[in-house]
Amino acid sequence: MARILQQDDALEAACRHLAAGEAVAMPTETVYGLAADATNGEAVARIFEAKGRPRFNPLIAHVADMEMARRFAVFPPLAERLAGAFWPGPLTLVLPQAEGSAIHPLATAGLDTVALRCPRGFARQAIARLGRPLAAPSANVSGRISATTAEAVQAQLGTRIPLIVDGGPTPVGLESTIVKVAGETLTLLRPGGLAAEEIERVAGRALVRGTTGVEAPGMLASHYAPSARLRLNVAQVEPGEALLAFGPRRARGAETAVKVLNLSPAGDLREAAANLFGHLAALDLGAAAVIAVEPVPASGLGEAINDRLARAAAPRDTGGEKL
Ligand code: AMP
Ligand code: MG
């Protein structure tokens, strides 16, 4: 079972685990979050692993203040105003990523936008102390109810994480409200702990509604798709193909590949998850029209890796033409 520390005594221990790339459960004002360094791909992979998430959906990166937020996102005037009014608090803003943003692509699911929030309470202290943003989805097993007490976290994730910070029951108890800001357009992506009307009052305009979740799954799939075609589970590499490898043994013909990148030479799924988006993007920059992909085991994080690869390999909305 995880160690539980009261929040007044937990800052140093929590930051030690986080700096070591581990995931720590901690209170925010909304629900308990399962937090890890958002700039460290393996740390982010640990979140998916502990939650047993079958998919790498984008996570919210939590920041300590506006100064930190500006390192990762571009704030149009409307976003500036909303953050000024509601941060710290239960409002997440989806914004264009800033040039040179250090948020790991596993945390943004490879999108060119980033979801940012400045939380209240212990989580904010930990972020400020660490000096880095924390990716933190709700601290529950995937598909189960969000945890609003340390005991609830222990019951779901206790065997999978080293530390739970106990701050008592969370005051809001609902996840944050997510608003996407694109220039002057505000879209409500998820209703949550801050009422839409309050946001509209401060923004002086209506929120566009009707979209739920991240994006339509089809749209999301095309975000993940490289422009090269993917060939999955290959045993034989054809001449001229690039190769996305996994583990210590190579597919036949690997020596003819124009470029080879290995997700994890040791066959470690956590390392592979952390490398997935970056390696795909790097191979896609090369000249190869086809990226051959070696089999990745389906267990543990492998399920999410295979899900993501299958989406990247899916025919495009353009009828399969190269985009
Ligand atoms: P949670 O699992 O509670 O952290 O929720 C994270 C949610 O934030 C995801 O399910 C998405 O709906 C949303 N989200 C995060 N990043 C983005 C993004 N870049 N664009 C759109 N939605 C996002
Ligand atoms: Mg959740």
From TrEMBL:
Q: Does this entry carry the keyword Cytoplasm?
A: yes
What is the protein's major site of localization? cytoplasm
* Keywords attached to this entry: ATP-binding, Cytoplasm, Nucleotide-binding, Nucleotidyltransferase, Transferase, tRNA processing
Coiled-coil annotation reads: none
In short, the EC number is: 2.7.7.87
Where does the record place it? Cytoplasm
Per UniProt, residues of the YrdC-like domain are: 8-194
According to UniProt, the reaction catalysed is: L-threonine + hydrogencarbonate + ATP = L-threonylcarbamoyladenylate + diphosphate + H2O
Q: Which GO terms describe its molecular function?
A: L-threonylcarbamoyladenylate synthase
Q: Tell me the domain of life.
A: Bacteria
Its job: Required for the formation of a threonylcarbamoyl group on adenosine at position 37 (t(6)A37) in tRNAs that read codons beginning with adenine.
Q: Which family does the similarity line name?
A: Belongs to the SUA5 family.
Q: Which NCBIfam families match?
A: L-threonylcarbamoyladenylate synthase
Q: What is this protein called?
A: Threonylcarbamoyl-AMP synthase
Instruction: Specify the species.
Output: Chelativorans intermedius
Q: What is the lineage of its organism?
A: Bacteria, Pseudomonadati, Pseudomonadota, Alphaproteobacteria, Hyphomicrobiales
